[in-house]
Amino acid sequence: MADKSNEAPVEPAAEEQKKQASIESLQQFGQTNVASNESNIFCLTIIGQIEGHIVLPPQNKTTKYEHLIPQLVAAEQNQKIEGILIILNTVGGDVEAGLAIAEMIASVSKPTVTLVLGGGHSIGVPIAVSSHLSMIAETATMTIHPIRLNGLVIGVPQTFEYLDKMQERVIRFVTRHSRVSEEKFKELMFKTGELTRDIGTTVIGADAVKYGLIDQIGGVGEAIRELNQRIEQRRQQLQSGGVVQ
Amino acid sequence: MTVIYSAVAPETLWEGLGKEPQYVDVNINGMNMQVEMLNMQQAKIVRLYSPNPNDYLNPAYMPGTVIEFHP
Question: Does residue A227 fall inside a structural domain?
Answer without folding.
Answer: yes
